[in-house]
Structures are given as C-alpha cells and as structure tokens.
Specification:
The protein has 127 residues and is of the alpha/beta class. Among the domains are: 1-29, no CATH class; 31-87, Urease, subunit C, domain 1, CATH 2.30.40.10. It has two helices and seven strands, in the order H-H-E-E-E-E-E-E-E. The chain has helices spanning 2-18, 22-25; strands spanning 32-43, 48-57, 60-65, 73-78, 83-84, 112-117, 121-126. A hairpin with a 4-residue loop joins strand 1 and strand 2. The N and C termini lie far apart (99 Å).
C-alpha cells in the first residue's frame, strides 16, 4: 500500500523535470564557475571575431557561445567593452627584476656598459 501512495508523487516529479518546472531547476548548481558576458571575442583558431560569452569551468574554457544565461554561472563579469581572447597566452616579459627605475627617462652622461647575466637580465652601469 505504501508504494502505491508514492507513485503519484514520483509521476509528478518526472513530469516537472521533463517540462523544466521551477521545482527541478531551483536545486541545480551553476553549470559554470565564471561567465564573461558580452565581450568581443577574437579566436583565430575557431574563426570567431564577434560579440560572444565565454564560460569557464574548473579553470578551463567550457563554452564560447552567444547569450549564455547568467544563471548558469557562479560568477558573472560584464566584459562588454573589452576584447576577450580565449586560449591565447601572453608570453611577453619585462627585462630586469622589479621594473624600470624611476629615472629611466633621464639621459645618462658618459660611457654606459651593459652585460648579459644569466638567465635573462641585462645589467647596465654608467662609467
């Protein structure tokens, strides 16, 4: 008798899930960790050069699509005025450690000697 009374509840639950009822969607966790919303995506490998959303899950790009719903992400960032280049890595670096000195723009007088120090630093001094 107990199984017979549980059957209508099970049927209602299955119907609610199939139709996307709030009963089914309210308990769902976000699908993505981060959503970059509305940025100008430039992705030469996939021939994309237009406004799209970029979704990230566990540190990796999970989706690049138009209009990904904001409720599918744990955090949403509006990047509508920015360029987004998913998958490209910025490999530039600045010579030296700690950046340029405050007087880098003043002309130096006299002889300047520079030497290369391993692994990637130039050392210059004025004589």
């Amino acid at each position: 008798m107990q199984n017979w009374t549980k059957m209508p509840l099970a049927i209602i639950t299955v119907i609610a899930i199939a139709h996307g009822s709030p009963i089914a969607t309210a308990a769902q966790a976000p699908h993505y960790d981060l959503l970059l919303k509305g940025g100008h995506v430039i992705d030469p490998a996939n021939h994309i050069d237009e406004v799209r959303d970029v979704a990230v899950f566990q540190g990796k790009i999970a989706a690049v699509e138009k209009n990904i719903p904001a409720d599918q992400a744990g955090k949403v960032v509006d990047v509508s005025k920015l360029y987004v280049t998913p998958g490209l890595i910025d490999i530039h670096f600045h010579v030296g450690h700690g950046g340029a000195p405050l007087n880098w723009f003043r002309p130096m007088r006299g002889r300047i000697s520079c030497r290369w120090e391993f692994p990637r630093t130039w050392r210059c001094s004025q004589e």
